[in-house]
Amino acid sequence: VECFGHGAVEISFHGWREWLPQSMHWGGMVDLEGNETPIVDEVSKVIHVLQKESEFILGSQVEKSGVALLFSQDNAIILDGSNVGDFLRDSLEGYVDMLWSENYYIDYISPLQILNKTLPEHIKVIILPFQMVIGETLGSGLKEFVSNGGTLVGHAKCGMMDEKGWYNRRKPGGGLDELFGIKETSLWPKEEIKVVYKTKSFP
Hints:
Blueprint (H helix, E strand, L loop, with lengths): L38 H14 L1 H5 L8 E4 L2 H9 L3 H17 L4 E4 L1 H5 L9 E3 L8 H12 L3 E3 L22 H5 L14 E3 L2 E3 L1
Parallel strand pairs: 1-2, 1-3, 3-4
Antiparallel strand pairs: 5-6
């Protein structure tokens, strides 16, 4: 039920019945012989709560926080091809868990919205979860977003490659080295990583 407080508009019961073609069985509301299972009682409880609070839910609007996660299909394809697609998934899940726990409404945006200048007006912060692919065009759009008052949050290996999957000569690429005021010079693996920001340490 909490999901409605974060902007969900529907609850779908995927795999509501057991399927004969499936080699794995996770349990459904109806078993293979067509009989109801105990899951039906749990689903009924959820439906009862929603029906009871339907007037409040339908009459409410979630306040949009202005925070958006950028998801690029090109980035996902190149990461999968490099066998590091799990890093993108973990990054997305981490940001969603963090923002969800703090009751932030989360928008998802595409590079096309940035390039076409069709971002929703309420977007004030753009997060780049493991966005390794950033070319000059997308970089320029992100810089313009910041110059108009927006906030941009980078991630590890941000902008290492361009839209063709080639390494950017300067990292982060797409001009983000100037925007963030940092430039990667070398990489050295360490067994223990400690990040210090101002007076606080993050192990």
